[in-house]
Amino acid sequence: MSSEKTADAANNWAPGAQKIDATSIAKPFRDEIRTQIQKLKEVGIEAPLLVGLLANSDPAAKKYAEWTGRACKADGIRYELREIDDAIDVENALRDANDDPRVHGIIVYYPIFGQVESFSGESQDDYLRDTVSHKCDVEGLCHEYRSNLYRNKRYVDYPTNSKKCVLPCTALSVVKILESCPSCYDKSKPIGRHMEGQTVTIINRSEIVGRPLAAMLANDGADVYSVDIDSIYLFRGGRLYACDGETPESCVRKSSVVVTGVPTKAYRLPSEWIQPNTTVVNVASFKNVSEDEILQIPGVTYIPMVGKVTVAMLERNLMRLFYNFHHPERQLEESKKRESDAALRPSPWYGNALQVYTAIAATAILAMSLARRK
Q: Which Pfam families match (predicted)?
């Protein structure tokens, strides 16, 4: 982890204040991915293929697609961007990618339809997220992975527990950032208690970042205030509690970690709410805080962008999916298991379809003969 601090800034920031460069947090994960890719190549296995589906002109989505492509190229991952002219064709393109054995990971660049009501669900974008196969979902947003996250199930193959779930990559990037920051995570405690005693406020309860992140941090032992435009909830110990007496200000003032994810230029979190020694993570593509002001707060740790760590987590999820479902050795194991299961099933009473037909025909003839005698 490194902090950005020029000589001029050193004269202006409060004592102990620091601004963290997310590139340094992403680096060890990307180094590990490059090592894994190299090991695959050494035994003659092609690098995994990630397919991106882009069907909108949203600048943030296009930028994310560019970052993904550059990172994959740099790290040795195969990446194919499929641009779709008409949004209505996204589902067919997505299903084609799901069914293509050459494809090991899929990312859909949202928003496409936004939150407009649809025939197939609360919104068409939500429906598309659930259409991505769990074997290819590098974003970790399909129903199976969301369900496991909210139930705090960490494996997809209970009770064997050999295949870890993937987690929503942007929310996971925030977790990895917090793990690298001082005083946020205590790894000396058991799993599920690493953030015990910490209070967190997350502003914006989106289904992509805000809600899954709140659940992940609560699963790690934190008390998490989830603040949205019309409500505040406390995530604690796998449960959700309404907070009628709280305000965004009261939540932020009692928090040691504050995460902002409001996707508008107009929003600014009042700096006076943030207490000394707070860690502040800006997830939104716009700055939700005044950088100059919060760096005047003693001991504050500020992370202005998470995009590079998010891409690293996307690649990490791809590698996990590859080893869970697509690696030739894993496919051979699954094939042997299917054969073993078939061998253990009891044989049917009939030998083949001809015997079934003969038995039915004989029964019918006998029934007709008996009917005539009557």
A: THF_DHG_CYH, THF_DHG_CYH_C
